[in-house]
Amino acid sequence: MKKKWSGKSVVLYAVLIFLCILWIIPVLFIFSLSVTPETSLAEVGYRLIPKEFTLDAYTYIIKNPGQILNSYKISIIVTIIGTVAGLFVTTGIAYAMSRKDFACSRHITRFMTFALLFHGGLIPTYIVVTQWLHLGNTLWVLILTMLVSPWNVFLMRSFLAGIPTELLEASFIDGAGETQTYFQIVLPLAKPGLATVGLLILFGYWNDWYQGMLYIDDMKLVPLQLLLYKIISNIQFILQNSFYTASQSGSFPTIAARMATCVIAIAPMLFAFPFFQKYLSKGLTLGSVKG
What we know:
Blueprint: H1 7-34, H2 38-44, H3 56-61, H4 65-98, H5 105-117, H6 122-132, H7 139-144, H8 150-160, H9 165-173, H10 178-189, H11 191-207, H12 210-215, H13 224-240, H14 246-251, H15 254-289
């Protein structure tokens, strides 16, 4: 049976296609600028379709492929372990907060609210992490310092609060314990929420460079985002200290290199996002209306 297209459907799809194009154009612009020579940018300006094509920016960035690959490996390891561990801890805290029959749920909620509104400060945090916990120059400092976000906990808690308590009571009546109910009943029903919070945690770990800048001095442990940040800083240092003459600096890939770092940084996330997209809108919608 053929689907009938109404005027409203045509207008809706046209608007959605137009919005998709608007969102895709900036990404295409970033890639276009990353493969455009600096001299061409100075002559004709920014163009969606480059007049000339070059890979000089990528060549400059990956001139030390071993370091790039190592930083990719560090970021992938940190992101995978951090996302799994963060999702497990976040979901556990949120589940305890959502259980109204749990005596400490209100105390945990107050604690998470306080953590959401107030922070200990950079200097005390740095002292605790480096002097007391001795986590400096380790992979664990990149994982543990971002393990739990109060905002993600409250988002997950709002979703889990929508699971009927009658379903949990029926599980207990059938002889299931808390652990069995949590893993076999609660988590399967929370897939949209898990995907949504998991995606937010994944993006947080992948895009983070600040923790590495604070706590990592060993180049073998530098994550990708921090390495790209250092490359951009080196470009600025080279140009500002006149290592290149005026004619040479005009051809140095400054803008193209910045755009190339964006392409290198976002490429893995562009491939990962479609696997979470179908759960993302549903999880955010359910999490926002259920309390």
